[in-house]
From TrEMBL:
Record InterPro entries: FliR, T3SS_IM_R
Compartment(s): Cell membrane; Bacterial flagellum basal body
Origin: domain of life: Bacteria
Protein name: Flagellar biosynthetic protein FliR
Membrane topology: Multi-pass membrane protein
Keyword annotations of the record: Bacterial flagellum, Cell membrane, Cell projection, Cilium, Flagellum, Membrane, Transmembrane, Transmembrane helix
Amino acid sequence: MITLTSVEMNTWIAALLWPLTRILGLIAAAPIFGSGSIPVPAKVGLGVIMAMIMAPAIPALPAADPLSMAGLLILVQELLIGLAMGFVMRIVFAAVEMAGEASSLTMGLGFASFFDPMTKGRSSSISQMLTLVATMAFLAVNAHLVLLSALAESFVTMPVAGTPMSAGAPFEVARWGGRIFSAGLQLSLPILAALLITNVALGILTRAAPQLNIFGIGFPVSLGVGLLVIGLVMPYLSTPFLNLFNEGIEVARAVARAAAGNARP
């Protein structure tokens, strides 16, 4: 007859529950995995499978009851670490969306907004197009697999422990949050520069010929120039997208190191 003690049951539950919490936190916040179009049972099933695969390689867990106050604090900490790592990659796509929004407003397409199922909000047509391109690039270079590899490495750099995580992790996420504006501006800079030159040319043309209806020709010219520049720039977006993905994954690793109190190399 097989008998199990409460200590053994708690050990088995903790060995699956705590890693699963960090994994589900990343799945909930990371792009692609956290999309609203993916059913919740599929996300939970993926998290359980990953936790069962990673559990044997995870370092020794703290001897704490999962239902005690110490166990619940560990649970919350694991959730925060997973959310932070997934949110770091979400910022990359937020930068792409900002580039599309800036381009749309400059082109005069600010009114052309649609429902975005990924963010469950409204975004411009150019923003959605760039987001779809970034999503396809994200999958094409297997960045989603590299992100899961970084998650598995985080159990070594920041093992499940009863000690509270360092305050460096939130500062790392906040520092990376400023990348939305710089990366978004860099991605949209060719379009903004071309439209700025177009608007200056239209202004000079209006001063030279006051009888010209600038409102009649300004919008189609700006729209045509914007679409032309987007078509010219699109083949060259692979390199900045790849750089952003690599940088985001490295920051996700840095968040795990900062949570453990280790300085960035």
